Amino acid sequence: MKVLIIVPAYNEEKTIGVILGNLKALKIGEIKKEIVVVNDGSGDQTAKIAAKQNITLLNHVLNRGLGGALQTGFAYAKSRDADFVVTIDSDGQHDPKDIKKLLSPLLEGRADAVIGSRMLEGGKMPIDRRIINYLANLVTYLLWSVWITDTQSGLRAFTINAARKIDIKTNRMEVSSEFAKEIARNHFRVAEVPIRAIYTDYSRQKGQKNANAFNILVKLLIHKFADIK
Amino acid sequence: MIITKFLITIFVFFALSRVVLRFKESKVSLVALIGWVLLWSSVELIVWIPAAASSVAQILGIGRGADLIIYSSIVILFYLIFRIYVKFEDLERQITQIVQTVALKKQTDKPAGKSSK
User: Is-annotated flag, keyword Transmembrane (chain B) (predicted)?
Assistant: First the structure.
């Protein structure tokens, strides 16, 4: 069995080396892994640092945003002989060891998609993030009738069949809610597992800005009501 | 005043001719053509018979003809902004597809990274 781990990265020279080192060191039983970094038009040393590791590196010539990078990762995954696809942030917010937890509902055949939720174990997320996250979950629920406790989580896992059906259209941060849309559209069985989020000043600075929430909402509405091919 | 009316009429005919030309080139749909013709015809009507706007305004329960024009302009502008936004999103998506194709093409030219346990 094989898992393909997609790591979207934009200007992450400070963290990408450590993340890739940790991912490579990760043992998931007998499951093989292929790490795919999508360098999203970084202007720093991200691509160079990633290229030194023995991983697959996909380079965007222009910055297209998180959604764009994940689209490329999924397009690549569709052509590979993997059994599972995992997405993980490159800002150091996620603990690669949580990937094992994510895969277990898939291995047991209980789910097609698994979301690593930072809300299930509670207490660690900063309060402003918690409120924004809750509102994002609510909007996602109102738009697509799927309740996920952490729609904005970047740590997700899918079976390859589910990954092949996923059709992401948004380019930027709104992609996180779009995964919920795809889960609803394809009637995936979804599971959530608690994960540990490591909040540092760096990851907070790199992650979603609270002020971005309105922009994301407008884009989600456009994608809900306009037919964008 | 009459000069203004003639200038607006010339502009309306210019705008209509552009729409018709773009329709002939199949760059504008029939529905859009009808929409634009209706819009510019009503502009012409209001320019030459201002009382028409007041009558329509009264039917709709809006006080004055001038108010009707402002309200409908705002609605039309909002709609056009929405259309531009959709077009913009569409273009963004197409750019992403190009960037993705280039990234995947470059990758297939190279051997893929090794799988490891």
Answer: yes
Average pLDDT taken over every residue of chain B: 87
Residue B49 lies in a domain: yes
ipTM (interface pTM): 0.84
Is the minimum CB–CB distance between B61 and chain A shorter than 8 Å? no
CB neighbourhood size of A72 (10 A): 29
Model confidence at A45, in pLDDT bands (50, 70, 90)?
Answer: very high
Which pLDDT value is given to residue A120?
Answer: 82
Is residue B114 pLDDT above 60, yes or no? no
| B70: in domain | yes
Nearest to A56 among B82, B90, B112 (CB): B112
User: Could you tell me the pTM of the whole model?
Assistant: 0.80
DSSP calls for A93-145: -B-TTHHHHHHHHHHTTS-SEEEEESSSS-S-S-HHHHHHHHHHHHHHHHHH-
Eight-state DSSP code of residue A40: E
User: Chain B contacts of A229, Cβ < 8 Å?
Assistant: 90, 93
B112 and A CB contact within 8 Å: yes
Q: How many domains does chain B have?
A: 1
B53 occurs within a structural domain: yes
Residue B25 lies in a domain: yes
